[in-house]
Amino acid sequence: MNKIGHALHDLDPVFDRVSRQPRLAAVAREIALVEPLLLQSMYTFKQPGIGGEVGWHQDATYLYTTPITVTGLWFALDDADRDNGCLLALKGGHRGPLRQRYRRSGDAKVTKTVDPTPWPAAEPVVLEVRRGSLVVLHGLLPHASSANRSSRPRHAYALHLIDGRASYDADNWLQRPNLPLRGFP
Asked: Minimal CA–CA distance to 98: which of 52, 138, 130, 42?
């Protein structure tokens, strides 16, 4: 297993308390989300020696709004470093276009190339952080993580916010017809 989710913040009281704390509401305001809604949450596992690589991607590929407003809040539950699969990012990559959309097409889910522009030819920024750190990820920022080759775990909690003023496309793979989006208290 590599993750559980996608609505922990709405289905579990502990995740609800953690996800809707006033400090996170303040972060949402600071990054200009006027009507922040908590869309998705996941607990990710990178177990010692077997935690897999996650390739380069943009969160807006999976959680698309018009305009693009998705923002990832990534909480390090363990120290994250090169050996146990910390995040990597392409500096300035959030200024580029959305490359792909992962969406519903009938009963299927498909990935469609939106813009074939290659990732910036830049050395990735290694985001080594201590347990308890918060990393904020713009929805267009290309990011990835390497495999966990260490004897230590690298667990994380990720929360994705969108601005309620944006349009959340009906063809997004993640739909919540029986679980309305909520913001901060």
From this structure: 138
| CATH of residue 117 | 2.60.120.620
Backbone dihedral region for residue 116 (phi beyond 0: left; psi -120 to 50: alpha; all else: beta)? alpha
pTM to 2 decimal places = 0.95
Distances (CA, A) of 105 to 40, 63, 113, 125: 21, 15, 14, 35
Give the Cα separation of 111 and 133 in Å (integer): 32
Q: How many structural domains are present in the chain?
A: 1
Query: Does 176 reside within a domain?
Result: no
What percent of the chain has a predicted confidence (pLDDT) above 90? Answer: 92
Q: Which domain holds residue 104?
A: 3-168
